[in-house]
Amino acid sequence: MNAPSAPVPTPAPFASHAWRRTFEVGFWVVLTLVNAAVNSVTVLMDIRRAGLPFAAWEPVSWEWSSGALLLALVPAVAWFTRRAPLHWDTWRRTLPLHVLASIAFSAVHVLGMIAIREVVYAAHGVEYDFGPWGRQFVYEYLKDVRTYAGTVVLIEGYRFMRRRLQGEASLLGEPDEGPPVEPVERPERFLVRKLGREFLVAASDVEWLQAAGNYVNLRVRGHDYPLRCTMAAIEERLDPSRFARIHRSYMVNLAQVASIEPLDTGDARVHLADGTVLPCSRRHRDALRERAGFA
């Protein structure tokens, strides 16, 4: 379908990478702190009610060691969900991968929290006993698989909401009736859907592109629009006289290149007109210099 052009909206504060990163890290840290504190109190209350011979510091060490490892594993889960996203069209292929990932997740969690508890118990002059390894690991895995699933749901749900808020790009396809107004195989514009609205972004306005798992982020005037596509696929569709691959994860609009800074490693830094600095791998450096007019 073809939609009328509209000006690109001013990016919302949420689009700021620094603000977004602070929110994301803060969310997981606060969630971990609250969960560990509440669990410590409830477990201690259960111990006192049952009259079990545990010191007050023991349930605290159990819950906080577990929470610390779970928090440390969140970046790994976020990275894995980018490589194996659970979408309606991919879940049959990626679900077995996530089952295997949940086992690895639990193994790292259990081994890490045991190491922390052994240090804490040794500091109190006693020995920590995890119990029978086989039975205890199964018990911990049954808890960890729910934690893993919940973490994946939170991450994917957050990404879905973020895409809805910032807008998601798509390639223009063949219209239902009549010929297309522009070449479909060499798109001049992208259709962006944002909160129920549609507008067009000119391909020439895209300053650079960055691969992000199954998406490619289109950078337009300080705003990122995720496009459900691979970097290799979009590279084939964009005009090679306007865009150049500079890295396995980056493409750049040649009109935006201000300077190219060679590095001792053979790689380079690409400085854009707006002050953005992008990496350029050595295999693309010479071609970029020639195509950008710096040769």
SSE map:
Elements lengths: L16 H34 L6 H27 L7 H33 L9 H34 L1 E4 L17 E6 L2 E6 L5 E5 L2 E6 L2 E6 L2 H7 L5 E5 L2 E4 L3 E6 L5 E5 L4 E4 L1 H10 L4
Antiparallel strand pairs: 1-2, 2-3, 4-5, 4-8, 5-6, 7-8, 9-10, 10-11
Rg value? 25 Å
Helices and strands, in N-to-C order?
A: HHHHEEEEEEHEEEEEH
Could you say how many structural domains there are in total? 2
Tell me the structural class. alpha+beta
Strand content: 15-25%
With strands numbered from the N-terminus, the spatial order across the biggest sheet is 6-5-4-8-7
Strand count:
11
Distance between the termini: 42 Å
Structure characterization notes:
With 295 residues, the protein is of the alpha+beta class. The protein has 2 domains: 13-166, no CATH class; 187-291, OB fold (Dihydrolipoamide Acetyltransferase, E2P) (Beta Barrel). The chain has 6 helices and 11 strands. The protein has helices at residues 17-50, 57-83, 91-123, 133-166, 231-237, 282-291; strands spanning 168-171, 189-194, 197-202, 208-212, 215-220, 223-228, 243-247, 250-253, 257-262, 268-272, 277-280. The strands form 3 sheets. A 5-stranded antiparallel β-sheet has the order 6-5-4-8-7. A 3-stranded antiparallel β-sheet has the order 1-2-3. Strand 10 (268-272) and strand 11 form a beta hairpin. Helix 2 (57-83) runs antiparallel to helix 3 (91-123). It is elongated and about 75 Å long. The two termini are 42 Å apart. The model is unreliable at 1-15 and 174-178 (pLDDT under 50).
